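Supplementary Text 2. Reproducibility record for the structural model of the 260-residue chain.

All settings were left at their defaults, and a single model was retained for analysis rather than an ensemble. We include the record here because the model underlies the residue-level annotations in Supplementary Table 4.
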Amino acid sequence: MSSESDKTSRCPVSHSGTQKTRETEGCPVMHGSKPQEGLNPLNHIPANLSHERQLGQKLDLPKDRTTSSIPKGNAQTNDFWEYPSPQQMYNAMVRKGKIDPNTGEEIPEDAVESMVFVHNFLNEGCWQEILDWEKKYTEVTDIEPKLLQFMGKPSQLSPRARWFSILGTLFPSQFSHELPFDRHDWTVLRPDPTSTNTEHPGYKKVRYVIDFYSGPDDEDGLPTFNLDVRPALDSVSSAKDRFTRWTEPVLSEYFGSEKK
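Retained model, structure tokens:
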């Protein structure tokens, strides 16, 4: 796939040289496009996810949670999102059925910690990409954006992902036809003094679409991932941001590097 927005991230977990990308890829928590009973509507994870060990569980999994670098979307606090602990993640997979969609087998307990590391690593990469998109707005207000809500939508192919797959079929030497293994929609609160949002005064809601792709193994045999992060095309300002972002390199090459 050829795209200026794609960022390749190396897997932060040590694997053997023969381990395949599919063993750790994807978001192992529960997904869906609509809120379900017992799920937190802000992240679609079970609201009361237990730290307790499962009946029949063979390994002791860590119960400590890692605090992310992502501010929560509450303008009144400075809290940050926390990632589920490996035990919570395992409990979520048990509720989900803990079936690997690629093999149809149960996800082994000793793979859960690696999955949590990769999950957290990819989410941190997503946030850094969003901060890059939001940079010009942050420079005006001197206030960082916050993450209000995120939702996994692995079964809903984005139009952009579908288009890249078509291009990969037509022009395999230039594009990849591989589909993303996951998709997230993140709702970001962008600081905006002119906003009329009564629920979050001084902020504007901006939706981002993120497609997760498996990359080729690196020279050490470790899996890599490509993140395609961009504002959703559901507002004029987001469409303008995308147009500006992807035309700037061309304009800079042919008409000079000075930005307007």
